[in-house]
Amino acid sequence: MSNDKLIGGSILIGSIAGIAIYFWLLFMSAWSWLTLQISAFAAVAMILLIMAWIGYTLLTTPPPMPLEDFDLDEIENPDDS
Fold first, then answer.
1. pLDDT in tens, 32-79
2. 25, 35 in Cβ contact below 8 A?
3. Residue 14 · residue 21 · CB < 8 Å
4. Is the pLDDT of residue 29 over 70?
């Protein structure tokens, strides 16, 4: 369990550091416009990649096998012949 806490703490500290660095890049640096461009591109690219993955999956997955027609009367009453 100690290893899980170490990983959790590292993720927490890394996330807070990432927020601080992003804040600094966005509001206090000369690269704010570039930071916005990269962020917007990454967000749109991720959405489009997910859509492409869904399209590829739909394209390459074979259709399901059709269900056979079942005669429910024969199944419910097999001795009534």
1. 999 999 999 999 999 999 999 999 999 999 988 877 766 666 655 555
2. yes
3. no
4. yes
3-class DSSP state of 13: helix
- SS3 of residue 7 by DSSP: helix
Distance of CA 14 to the CA centre of its chain: 21
Residue 39 belongs to a domain: yes
pLDDT value for 70: 65
As separate numbers, helices (DSSP H) first and strands (DSSP E) second, the chain gives 3, 0
Q: Where in the sequence is the domain holding 3, given as residue range(s)? A: 1-30
Contact (CB, 8 A) for 25 and 32:
yes
Residue with tokens 């990983």: 7
| Domain count across the chain | 2
65: helix, strand or coil: coil
